Amino acid sequence: MKLRIAELHIDITCDDSIVAYLPNLRPFVADGNSASDKAICHIATGQTITPETAEPTLSSIGDDKSIHLWIKPDECKLSLQIHPIGKTYWLQADRRWQRVAIDCPATADDEEAAYMNDFIMIAFVYSSAFHGAATIHASSVAIAGEGCAFIGHSGIGKSTHSGLWLRHIAGTRLLNDDQPVVRIHADGTTRIYGSPWSGKTDCYRNEGANLRALFFMQQSTENSATRLTALEIYQRLLKATSLIGRDTATFGAISHTQAAISSSVPGYLLKNSPTEEAARLSHKTFTDNP
């Protein structure tokens, strides 16, 4: 199966029928004629991976699953442990995430497909880092060919604000409600794209728009939009970006991309209440910015 996300291709050694279990991937399945050598990442499924016994470099432990990462000079290895069923899946990749092996089978069932989805997302996030792309925690909307992102921590009101645009700003469409991709192209154009991962919202659009503005959300009883400096944008944007902070290879690539975006795309601190007035303000800012 070939996927096309943010105009980047990844190859996966599984049949297209996997989308029966992962419908979020369906809009991103690429034409079978897409050349393999164009892929930024090749994912081999059903591989045998030797589990690590040393202490991991990084760990993220949740109620339902835990992720452990080992960073070595020539490879990364990652385990995904599912607590309710007591099962662990493994991923192994080179340091530029061009070749990725996972032990999920090519003919995954419903349960295994869910974990394959996690691995596909991880592989895309880090392989795309070397092609001017970064995946951010945001809600993104677009009007015609231009888009913006509402950025902040969970519960800050990103989805609510997108919903206000959809309700009150004519022509608005939702690009993605959790993990849009921002990418700087070779010609210097910065675009924002939908992705197969949109949190709890069923929005999987394989399309993009020129990125016109970034809004960093702050809840308030009053509404205001204050222009931020490039450094302030960079600091806030990096906090909202999926990255492995202790992996110098991917961190260097992603931080370079975010620095370039910060110097070319206007960013604003949006103090807002969940009202039509707030949506009108951010839309006017979006429309009026140079």
Note down, in words, how this protein is organized:
The chain has 290 residues and is of the alpha+beta class. It is built from 5 helices and 17 strands. Strands 9, 10, 11, 12, 13, 14, 15, 16 and 17 form a 9-stranded mixed beta sheet that branches. Strands 1-2-3-8-7-6-5-4 form an 8-stranded mixed beta sheet, with helices on one face. Helix 3 crosses helix 4. The longest helix has 19 residues. It is globular and about 55 Å long. The relative contact order is 0.14.
Structural features:
290 residues, alpha+beta, 2 domains, 9-stranded mixed β-sheet, 8-stranded mixed β-sheet, globular
Distance linking N and C termini: 41 Å
> Order of helices and strands, N to C?
EEEEEEEEHEEEHEEEEEHHEH
CATH architectural name of the largest domain: 3-Layer(aba) Sandwich
Content of β-strand: 25-35%
Helix content: 10-25%
